[in-house]
Design goal:
This protein is of the alpha+beta class. It is built from two helices and four strands; from the N terminus they run ββααββ. It has a four-stranded mixed beta sheet with strand order 1-3-4-2. The longest helix has 24 residues.
Amino acid sequence: MLVTTTSTLQNREIADYHGVVTGEAILGANIFKDLFAGIRDIVGGRSAAYEEELMRAREIAMEEMQARAERLGANAVIGVDIDYETVGQNGSMLMVSATGTAVSVR
């Protein structure tokens, strides 16, 4: 499936619009990752634990969005936007949402 942040696809014609599709992922960061990330914040540097969680959440959201587009008969998703938010008590959970327009292209 073609996925793009642009509203068109080069050298492709959009034959049908199937509507907006979304994918979401909400992941909780466990206490050990929080502890090590806190230490990393104090001494400086990147937090690999959070980067891995963020990457995993983004992949889940994108896969879910593509699966929903496929169920609608689409072979591409255009205009994709990815948003990141913290939710839950004290921002203890990470939410990633992917949104785009499901289309059929030739």
